Amino acid sequence: MRFGVNYTPSQGWFHHWLDFDLDAVRADLDAIASLGVDHVRVFPLWPVFQPNRSLIRPRAVEQLVALADAAGERGLDVNVDGLQGHLSSFDFLPAWTRTWHRRNLFTDPDVVAAQAEYLRTLAAALADRPNFIGMTIGNEIAQFAAGPPHPDPDRISSAQAGSWLERVLAACEEGAPGRTHLHAEYDASWYQDDQPFTPAHAARLGALTAVHSWVFNGTAQRYGKDGPATYGHAAYLVELSKAWADDPHRPVWLQEVGAPQPLIPAEHAHRFTEATIDAVLDCPDLWGITWWCSHDVSRDLADFPELEYSLGLLTNDGTVKPAGKAVAGIAAEWRGRVHSPAPRTTALVVDAGDDATAPRRSVCAPGGPVFEAFAALAAEGVRPTVVLASRADDAEHLAARGITEVVTPDHGAGGRSLGARCAAD
Fold it and tell me: Which UniProt keywords apply (predicted)?
């Protein structure tokens, strides 16, 4: 079982790449390692590393390798997000893709070729490091492809999104063959009908599926800071992702999850952290959990959304916060243990339309019938998972996942008689 953190440098946030200080990085990694976690996810800023389409700065790549080596010296494996992209409400895109040089990030052949070369270069620089997990294409890069919420989207079709993902994932594999290369989208891919990055892309492309769970998406607002559906949101996303996976045991990585204030008050962060992780650990085929984030953003930095200043497991000066103690305690409890929860035998049917494009996937969003039915089942003590309507009668698929009962979303809290049927039928 893997436990890690998304590394947010204590000095300068991700702007630290402009004034890279390896000693400061080492101090941060010492603090992270003291939590007992085993990996970090790190974020090169794309415009800093590739400021011109034909220039990938050698010194920046050397600094990334130095960071990875410093992590390895502390027993930490490293996953690298390449196209940053978007972080904590700020966009970081090279000037050669914007304004006077405005080109679509996903379809312009010159831009895509440059992205592929950049990702290939980073992967190759780390390929011989034993603590290198692999590349993530970028942090929630799907947000650039649809608006709202993005104010200036690079609009594409689902087919174009899939083609782009295949191209850039192949570049990572060329740079570092056999490593765990993946892409990561935010929950719009699971909940927003017109998002071109789809559940099928998330669950079928790349070495594993990544999910990012943020309860400020309407979950905490609707169900409360300590509602079972709020505690269970991350586990729900993990299980929802399995509906679209072709491999019945495809690994799922909870790559981002955090306790956002004020929806999760500071005094409740410890409880939220424990309850969220406990729920996720009951999900089979879980690769790992990576908390957002390591350090609070410094109050010296301006214009962040208020919640970003308090998401760390550590304060800006390195003091362990209550949520950090919760993660450390769970990591210690699980060290050396095999993660093997029993199969989830009851499957909730999701019909989001065409499986490839999921044009009605909002049925899965907080308040939607699939979400509500999943929460109702969990409240009854059932351990539900999710299956596509197209597979609900596929005995081979159900058996491979250990599913023995299929339930439709018209199920209510009073019992499973509505729409329930035995999978063996």
Answer: Hydrolase
Please tell me the chain's helix, strand, coil percentages from 3-state DSSP, rounded to the nearest 5.
40, 15, 40
First to last CA, the chain: 35
Residues 269 and 373 in one domain: no
What integer pLDDT is reported at residue 424 of this predicted model?
A: 42
Q: Is residue 149 part of a domain?
A: yes
- For residue 213, what are the CA distances in angstroms to 66, 189, 290? 30, 12, 11
Residue 180 has pLDDT above 90, yes or no: yes
Average pLDDT, the chain: 95
Please check the confidence at residue 416 and state whether its pLDDT lies above 90. Answer: no
Q: Which amino acid is at 315?
A: T
- In angstroms, the CA 374 to CA 377 distance is 5
State whether residue 39 is helix, strand or coil: strand
Q: Which residues of 197-223 are buried (b: 16+ CB within 10 A; e: fewer)?
A: bbbbbbbbbbbbbbbbbbbebebbeeb
Residue 410 has what pLDDT? 85
Q: Is 267 exposed, middle or buried (0-12, 13-18, 19+ CB in 10 A)?
A: exposed
User: Which two tokens mark 30?
Assistant: 């010492």
Look at residues 334, 358, 380 and tell me which one is the last residue of a structural domain.
334
